[in-house]
Write a structure and sequence with these properties.
The chain is built from one helix and seven strands; from the N terminus they run αβββββββ. It is mostly beta strands. The longest helix has 16 residues.
């Protein structure tokens, strides 16, 4: 029984060690350009991890971006150091036509950065994405 328990624990350790080997991508600049006709408020950014082929989510400071303006976020992106970040999604709310109220927050569509889908995430790299949906 002890041998079975030890073998199972070894498998758990090996399985845990095989995921998320990449380092954090330190202080990349994610510039969000609002191409919509309305002001948006962004509170999360999803980025696609090209090494593990999955979406990852980064909470960012809730930021209002007026139509035609931009905002830059510099949060570290986990697990994608030296990996391609091929696309992004914004968790955003759209300002209503009257007053200061916003609609519900929701995920927008996939956005490929201006720099293309082959840029590797390293310290101080810049991604420019356009919110248009």
């Amino acid at each position: 029984m002890k041998n079975i328990h030890a073998a199972l624990m070894g498998l758990v350790v090996v399985a845990a060690a095989t995921t998320a080997f990449a380092d954090n991508c330190k202080a990349p600049k994610v510039k969000v350009v609002n191409d919509k006709s309305e002001t948006i408020k962004v509170s999360k950014i999803q980025y696609f991890d090209g090494c593990d082929n999955k979406w990852r989510t980064e909470d960012v400071a809730s930021t209002e971006i007026r139509s035609g303006q931009s905002a830059t976020f510099t949060d570290n992106l986990e697990y994608v150091g030296n990996c391609k970040v091929t696309k992004f999604k914004l968790y955003r709310a759209v300002r209503k036509q009257t007053g200061d109220a916003y609609g519900a927050f929701e995920w927008g569509g996939e956005l490929v950065p201006d720099q293309g889908a082959n840029q590797v995430c390293n310290t101080n790299v810049t991604y420019t994405i356009h919110a248009h949906d």
